[in-house]
Specification:
GO terms for molecular function: metal ion binding; phospho-N-acetylmuramoyl-pentapeptide-transferase activity. By secondary structure, the protein is mainly α. It contains 8 helices and no strands.
Length: 183
């Protein structure tokens, strides 16, 4: 595994498969949790895929760059129908496919550890659910009004379109930071 912000690489040896299995399942499900508002998962994944397109192209991995570009195009086309008010929804099949694509780009470019940064929204969504469920089981109280975190912001009075736009902007900023981290 390549360590972001450094030239260091960690060889996991026989632990590679169980650790990567856990990471892959976690990321795929985190993308699925993000698919709760019109255009949220597809817009965030469009930006994350654009990062991998740029990164893969820069390191000479043209196969991944082309697949990431196709994912950008697919998400862009889908957003026309999935933006508020959505005419179609991707469902679990679509969101898990996007999560699988993001993981594949990361694995094939040896950059799996950049996902928490470039895909920070995915992690915020997943961590908010883990925190909410864990805290509720311990105290019978909630941390957030609702989880995943995008629903918390809705419950706080933010319109759906504002939540989606802010999450897209955060993802753009994280993608730029990720580009700086890997170049």
């Amino acid at each position: 595994l390549a360590i972001p912000f450094t030239d260091a690489v960690i060889n996991l040896g026989p632990l590679y498969i169980p650790i990567m299995t856990f990471i892959i399942i976690g990321i795929v499900n985190a993308v699925n949790l993000t698919d709760g508002l019109d255009g949220l998962a597809s817009g965030v994944t469009l930006i994350v895929a654009a990062f991998f397109m740029i990164y893969a192209g820069n390191i000479g991995n043209t196969d991944v760059a082309v697949l990431a570009a196709a994912t950008v195009g697919a998400c862009l086309g889908f957003l026309g129908f999935n933006s508020y008010p959505a005419k179609i929804f991707m469902g679990d099949t679509g969101s898990m496919a996007l999560g699988g694509a993001v993981v594949a780009f990361a694995v094939l470019t040896n950059s799996i550890l950049i996902i928490p940064l470039v895909g920070g929204i995915y992690f915020a969504e997943a961590i908010s659910v883990i925190m909410q469920v864990s805290y509720y089981k311990l105290t019978k109280k909630r941390i957030f009004k609702m989880a995943p975190i995008h629903h918390h912001f809705e419950q706080c009075g933010w319109p759906e379109t504002r939540v989606v736009f802010v999450f897209w902007i955060v993802t753009v900023v994280l993608a730029w930071i990720s580009i700086i981290a890997v170049f």
